[in-house]
Amino acid sequence: ELGRELGRAEGINRELERLIDNQQDMADSLAALRGQAEDNRRTLEATLAATSRSQAALDTLEAQQSANRKQVQQELAILAASVEDTRRQMGTVQDDWVLEEVAQLLLLANQRLALVGDVVLASRALALADDRLQSLAGPQLLKVRRALKAEQAALAQLPKVDVDGLALTLAALIEQVGELPLKGDEDRPAWQVPADAAALTAAPETSPDAAGNDNSLSQVGRKVLDDLSDLVRVRRVDQTRVPKLTDAQRFLAYENLRLHLLSAQFVLLRRQPALFKENLRQARQWLAGYFEPVNVTGDYDASLVALQNQPLVVTLPDISGSLVLLQAEIQRREAAQ
Asked: In angstroms, rounded to a whole number, what is the distance separating the alpha carbons of residues 243 and 290?
C-alpha cells in the first residue's frame, strides 16, 4: 500500500508540475496578450491623435472656408447694391434728361403761342412732349399728360387763320407798289414821258420810198403844226390839278406806301391784329392822297380792304398748366436725390 501511495503522490506531483507548466504558459500568453494590447492601445492612441489633428485641421479649414464664403457673399451683396444703385442712377439721369427735354418743348410751345400766336408750332411741340412722356411712368407724369391732352384739344378747337397766306398776299402787293401811278402822272406832257413809253407811242418811221417826199412843202408845214400842237395844249380844267412831284417826292411816296405794307406784314406775323389794321388804314390813306384814282389803284385799294376785313382776333387758351406740373415734378425728383 505504501507503494500505491507513493505512486499516487508521484502522479499528483506530476499533475501539479503540469498545472504549473500550464499556468506558466498561460502567464506567458497573458503577458504576450498584454504586450499586444499595449501596442494596440498605443497604435489606437496614435490613430486617435492623428484623427483628432485631422479633425482640427478640417474644422479650421471649414471655418476658414465659411469665413471666406461670408466675405464673398458680403462682397457680392455690396457689388449687387452698387450695380443696382448705378442702374438706378443711370435710369434717374435718363429720366431727368427726358423731363428736361419735355420741359423745353413745353416752354417753346408757351412762348410761341404767347408771343406770336403760332398755334401750329405750339400744337406740334405739345404732341412731341406727350410722345416723350410715354416712356416714363408715375402718377405725377400722368397728371402732366392729362393736362397736355386738354391743352392739345383746346388748340385744335381754335379757328384756323391763314397767316402765311395773308403775308404772301401782302408781299405780292408790296411788289406791285412801283406799278401804281402817282397823282399828276396822267397830265405830264409828251416830253416828260419816259423814253420807253415815248418809243411805244412814237409814229412809225417812214419807208425809204417815201424819204424823197420829205422835202415837200406840205409835209414840212404839217410837221411844224404837229410840233406846235405838242407844245401848246388847250384843255378845260374843272378842278385844281395836283402839281407834278419831284423825283425825291416820288421816291418818298412809293417808299412810304411800301413801309406801311411792310409794317402790316411784320405785325401780322407777330399776331398783332390792331396794329395790322392800323397800318393797312394808313396805307389806304396814303394811297388815296398820293396816287392817281384809276382802275389799277382802285383794285389795289380793294385788296387792302379785303385784308382789313380778315378776322385775326383769336382768344388763345392757356397752355401753361402742363409746364407748371412738370416743373413741380422735376423739383420733387431733385429734392429726393
From this structure: 11
